[in-house]
Specification:
By secondary structure, the chain is an alpha/beta fold. The chain has 7 helices and 7 strands. The chain has a 7-stranded mixed β-sheet, sandwiched between helices.
């Protein structure tokens, strides 16, 4: 896989399903280090590295969802052509759930193989009426939102030098979310597993359940104790939910 766009945090690449993980707003590929190392070694877990962060700090971040989706889909299309028949799945958290979903839709429109399953975390389905939740635009408001959501990287917000590095990506990601509009479309045939924290200030369990309308296939909703970044406290359980979803797809295909 293209080393510019994807990172692998395991010593070897599993020969089974490839799981492509999409980070949250302001996040980087390293958000999935623990998950990658907890999942069974048979899976090949890779994380998307968006431009404008970590080793891609010199690349301008995207300020709209559509071109980001286009770029990721191009990379995945190349890999699908290079390794035909290799099953793959997509996992996205928060903004990453939206990017993963739209990437799956774009690949479907191109007539390319569909993911074995989509895992969408910490976000509700796109609103058909495009009633956008008020998203912060000023830097101070963006930072206040990030603090409210919590997570494991809060200390960086108190370091002016680190903040200067991470703020452009945060600003760009929130701009991309604020300008996103749901274009509609038929439900995917791809099965969905939706994951959410029971006290997430961004999305309720009920709102997470709205993803059910976006698939004609199997649907599962997994609720965990915790807030927006519940994954950090439940890595093993999340890995089990992913494994369950992927094995269910394998069983169904063999039936």
């Amino acid at each position: 896989m293209n080393s510019t766009w994807f990172r692998r945090f395991t010593k070897t690449a599993g020969r089974g399903t490839r799981l492509v993980c999409f980070p949250h707003a302001g996040g980087s590929a390293t958000a999935y280090v623990d998950l990658a190392r907890t999942l069974p070694a048979d899976f090949d877990v890779v994380s998307v590295q968006y431009p404008g962060r970590q080793d891609r700090y010199g690349d301008a971040p995207f300020t709209a969802i559509a071109p980001l989706v286009e770029a990721v889909a191009d990379e995945l299309a190349h890999d699908l052509a290079a390794d035909p028949g290799r099953p793959y799945a997509l996992f996205g958290h928060s903004m990453g759930a939206l990017v993963a979903f739209e990437t799956a839709r774009l690949l479907d429109r191109r007539g390319l193989p569909s993911p074995q399953r989509l895992f969408l975390s910490g976000r509700g389905a796109p609103d058909p009426l495009n009633r956008a939740r008020g998203l912060p635009e000023e830097d101070a408001d963006v930072l206040a939102e990030v603090r409210k959501l919590g997570g494991t990287d809060q200390s960086m917000l108190d370091d002016p030098d680190i903040l200067e590095i991470v703020l452009p990506a945060l600003r760009a990601d929130y701009r991309a979310l604020a300008t996103y509009r749901w274009g509609g479309g038929e439900p995917l045939a791809t099965p969905l597993t939706v994951l959410v924290g029971d006290s997430d200030p961004m999305v309720t369990v009920s709102e997470a359940g709205t993803w059910r309308e976006q698939t004609s296939g199997d649907f599962a909703l997994k609720v965990f104790a915790g807030g927006h970044f519940y994954i950090g406290d439940h890595v093993g359980e999340v890995a089990a939910a992913i494994t369950e979803g992927l094995l269910a797809g394998t069983t169904a295909a063999a039936a």
